[in-house]
Structure formats: C-alpha cells, structure tokens
C-alpha cells in the first residue's frame, strides 16, 4: 500500500534519524503513554482506592505509631470511606462506614481470609487450632464452641456468673474507691475460669492458671503483631506459660476422661466434641482443647471486662440512665423475686441498651481485619467505585464507624435510648459492628450480655456510684482498648 506523500516524507525522516535519537523518541512516547494511561485509569469508574503515600516503607508505620485514631481521622478527612496506606511491605486498605462494608463482612474465607492477618496469635493459642489450621477445620472448631453456647448451656452458666459477682462484691466495704477496669478484669477472670476452663481450675488451680494466663497476655505486645516470634523476653515467657498451661490442662482432661466425671462447662463441651467432616471424625486432642480454651478466653475476657467498665462509667456519669436501670431492677424484683436467672436477665432491656451504647461509644477492638484473596469492588456513599486488589490487608474499624453521623444520630452523645423503638438505630446494616457482623460475627455475644448483665444487676441492687474523675479517654496504647484509669466511689445501699 502507498503512503500519502506527506506521511512518506515523515517516515523517511524518522528512518534517517540516528538509533540514539530513535530510542530517546521511543522512550518519550512510552512515558507519555503511561502518563495518559494513568490519568485514564484514574478516570475509570472502577479503580484502586487512593493511596496515602508517605515515606517509602516506613511512612505507613509512622502513621500507625502516630496513633491509629489519628490515622483513621486524617485518612477519612482526606480520602473518604476507602483509602490505602502502605505499611512496610504490605498495603492496608481501610473501609469505613456501612456503604463500603458488606463484602468485608459477608464474603467467605476464600475471598476475605482471616488466617493471614490473625496468625500472630498462633504462639499464644498454640498449634493445631484456629489460625493454625485450614478454614474448614477452624469452622468445625468454632462449631464445637457454638454448641457450648446454646440456650440451655447459657442457662447453666448464669448461676455461676451470679455467684462469682455476689461473692466478689461482698468483699467491698460500706464505701470505697475503685477503678472499674481493674475490678471487672479480676472478676471476669474468675467467671471465665469457672464457666470456660472448668471447676478444677476455679477451685484448685486458680492462682497458678491466672498467673500463666497473665504471662500469655503480657506476651502480646504491638511488636508481636508484626513479629510474633521476635526473640524478646515477653515472648520467651509467653512460650513457657503456654507450655505449662498445656501440662495443667492435659492432666485435668485425662482425669475427667478416665473417671467419666462430667461438668457443665466449655471444657466438657470440648472433651465430648468430635470433628464431623474433617480429621476422620476424631475427638479433640489435649493440645487442641488447651488451644481452643485459650482462644475463647482471649476473645472474650478483655472485651467483656472493658465493656462492663464502660457501661458503669457511662451510667455513673449519666445519673438519669443509672436511675432508669435501677428502676428496671426494682420492677424485675417485684415481678420475679430476687433470683437472677437467664429469663430475668433477658427481661432487662434498659440495662441491655446501656451495655450496647457503652459498646457503641467504645468498642474494645479498634480494627477487624481480613486478607483479600481475590479482588473486589466497593462503592462509597458518594457513588465512587474502587477495586481493592488481591493481596491487600483490609481493615474495618468499629470505633471509627460508630462515630459517623450517617450511622448514629449525634454519635458523640451517650444515648442508650437510640436503640429503643421507634429509633432503633442499630438496625441500619453494618452501622453497629461492636460484635463484628456477618460471617464472623462474635459467637460469644449472648454469653457476654448475660455475664455483664449479671454483674450490673448485682451492682445496681446494692450500690450507688460517683465518678471522682471525668469520663476517661480510651487508652489506644493497649491491644484491646479500654478506659484510662478512672476513680469511682461506691456506696452501699439496698434497692
Ligand atoms: C463485649 C464483649 C465482646 C466483644 C466486644 C466482642 C467482639 C468481637 C468482634 C468484633 C468479633 C469479630 C472479629 C472479626 O470480625 O475479625 C468477635 C468474634 C469472636 N468472638 Fe467476640 N466479643 C465479645 C465477647 C466474646 C466472648 C465472651 C466470647 C467467648 C466466650 C467471644 C468469642 C468470639 C469468637 C470465638 C469470635 C470469632 C468468630 C469467628 O471468627 O467466626 N467473644 N468478637
């Protein structure tokens, strides 16, 4: 085919250029094409989320160490509901608010996986359980735990919750000053020992086991999230404590299996349980039982004691809500007598709303995370669409989401009535995520409500409280986020 004369002249000129000039020209065209391509890519309706660049490699780490709350606040103000922060060799993409959350919570583990982001727990929980096993094995292990939380099982734990609370507060004087966080942390270790770890631990081995669990706790520091096997003293101690706990539980499990003696606790549930579709239908090993007990204890203990603390702090700071909850107790006593049972605790709607509101104001888990095994797209409330690539760590934040005015009316105000009809603000999908949501929503939620209600029923019936300090800030330095120290004066009185 003949070229038009003008083009033929141009082609002759190009071909007569030196190779060096040709390469330079080619490079310029390539750079121009890439730049145009990037602009066009950014204009496409589906694209990667904006990246909050900083210093290479350490930029994101610095943003994290500047405080996770600041990072979320600044990132949200700058980019909106979806943005990416490169942290060391990883990309962390934040999804903030209900519009961008459904896939995060609903997707299966083949798309949004937990093991890659939560595997720092393996040295604490131990081998062969939870994040150290394939997802289908983990699902069965959680199924075994769920069977320990049926209505009938929960009913059988309530007398233990009450007994521990009554005995604990019987030791308080007529009046005194306490820090709720310290008190509830001790009390909940006792009830967890009784209902989860079993009678032997609660009655004979409590101090020893509590010390070992404390060693495990101390071995979980922010560094452990990135380097769980770093050779540091707290990790060495963690490993020793984990080994000693395994030895104690192996003894207890063997004794129960040999004697045929049965108890009503979660330990018994694990002793009796069998895999169904994996591991040839066998029973759990002693090592697996120990690991699962530690895992459920870690999931429930600090989260529950912190929520119990915030519930008390906010009710003490907002007298009208304390009084309403106390009136509810009087009604329940009039109707059912003094006994606290599964049924009476379930009737306590005012107290329930106070607990939920405390959890909304201060969820103890700042971030819940997944690893994107497949790319997925999200659309923000303003209609922007992004594609989150495979390989990103994806994070949602209960704390931050709960403070969005599009989720909750006047979000900074303590207002338990927001959960009562007709408002029922918790019903907006993915607005209230204090217990997570969807596929991996908290299994222990009912257990937690019953336990916290039991504690606060005993307190509302026997004490008045006065905060001696202002409502404290949340302590973002700790792994599970609770209140900073706050002094509270209690005074005994009978309802
Ligand atoms: C107020 C107390 C509690 C809070 C705020 C809380 C919060 C949460 C949250 C946010 C998740 C979701 C994590 C994620 O999506 O990655 C979760 C999951 C879980 N929680 Fe709780 N939790 C509480 C009490 C408990 C208790 C008492 C137990 C056990 C006795 C427990 C056992 C679990 C378990 C086993 C999971 C994992 C579920 C799964 O991955 O499928 N939690 N919890």
TrEMBL record:
Q: Does the keyword RNA-binding apply?
A: no
Pfam families reported for this sequence: p450
Q: Keywords on this record?
A: Heme, Iron, Metal-binding, Monooxygenase, Oxidoreductase
Q: Which cofactor does it need?
A: heme
Q: Which GO terms describe its biological process?
A: sterol biosynthetic process
**Lineage top rank: taxon:** Eukaryota
Annotated GO molecular function terms are: heme binding; iron ion binding; monooxygenase activity; oxidoreductase activity; oxidoreductase activity, acting on paired donors, with incorporation or reduction of molecular oxygen
| Sequence positions that bind heme | 442
> Which family does the record assign?
Belongs to the cytochrome P450 family.
Q: What name has this protein been given in UniProt?
A: Uncharacterized protein
Species of provenance: Chlamydomonas reinhardtii (Chlamydomonas smithii)
């Amino acid at each position: 085919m003949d070229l038009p004369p003008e083009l033929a002249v141009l082609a002759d000129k190009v071909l007569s250029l030196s190779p060096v000039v040709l390469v330079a020209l080619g490079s310029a065209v390539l750079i121009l094409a890439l730049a145009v391509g990037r602009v066009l890519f950014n204009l496409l309706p589906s694209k990667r989320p904006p990246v909050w660049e900083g210093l290479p490699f350490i930029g994101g780490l610095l943003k994290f160490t500047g405080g996770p709350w600041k990072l979320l606040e600044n990132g949200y103000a700058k980019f909106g509901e979806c943005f990416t922060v490169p942290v060391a060799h990883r990309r962390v993409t934040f999804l903030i608010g209900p519009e961008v959350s459904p896939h995060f919570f609903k997707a299966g583990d083949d798309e949004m996986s937990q093991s890659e982001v939560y595997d720092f727990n393996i040295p604490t929980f131990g081998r062969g359980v939870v994040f150290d096993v394939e997802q289908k094995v983990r699902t069965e292990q959680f199924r075994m735990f769920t069977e320990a939380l049926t209505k009938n099982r929960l009913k059988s734990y309530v007398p233990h919750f009450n007994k521990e609370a009554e005995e604990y507060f019987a030791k308080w004087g007529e009046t005194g000053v306490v820090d709720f966080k310290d008190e509830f942390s001790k009390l909940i270790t006792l009830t967890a020992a009784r209902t989860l770890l079993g009678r032997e631990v609660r009655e004979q081995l409590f101090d020893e086991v509590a010390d070992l669990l404390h060693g495990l706790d101390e071995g979980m520091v922010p560094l452990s999230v990135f380097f769980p096997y770093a050779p540091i003293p707290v990790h060495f101690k963690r490993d020793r404590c984990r080994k000693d706990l395994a030895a104690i539980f192996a003894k207890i499990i063997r004794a129960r299996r040999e004697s045929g003696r049965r108890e009503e606790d979660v330990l018994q549930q694990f002793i009796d349980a069998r895999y169904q579709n994996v591991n040839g239908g066998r029973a759990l090993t002693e090592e697996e039982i120990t690991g699962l007990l530690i895992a459920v204890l870690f999931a429930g203990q600090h989260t529950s004691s912190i929520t119990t603390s915030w519930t008390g702090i906010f009710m003490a700071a907002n007298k009208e809500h304390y009084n309403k909850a106390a009136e509810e107790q009087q009604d329940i006593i009039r109707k059912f007598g003094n006994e606290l049972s599964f049924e009476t605790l379930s009737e306590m709607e005012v107290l329930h709303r106070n607990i939920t509101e405390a959890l909304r104001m201060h969820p103890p888990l700042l971030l819940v995370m997944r690893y994107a095994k497949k790319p997925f797209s999200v659309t923000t409330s303003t209609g922007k669409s992004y594609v989150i690539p495979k390989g990103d760590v994806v994070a949602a934040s209960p704390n931050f989401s709960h403070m969005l005015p599009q989720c909750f009316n006047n979000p900074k105000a303590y207002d338990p009535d927001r959960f009562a009809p007709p408002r029922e603000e918790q019903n907006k999908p993915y607005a209230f995520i204090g217990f997570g949501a969807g596929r991996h929503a908290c299994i222990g939620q009912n257990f937690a409500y019953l336990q916290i209600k039991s504690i606060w029923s005993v307190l509302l019936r026997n004490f008045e409280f006065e905060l001696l300090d202002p409502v404290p800030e949340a302590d973002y330095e700790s792994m599970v986020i609770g209140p900073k120290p706050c002094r509270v004066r209690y005074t005994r009185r009978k309802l």
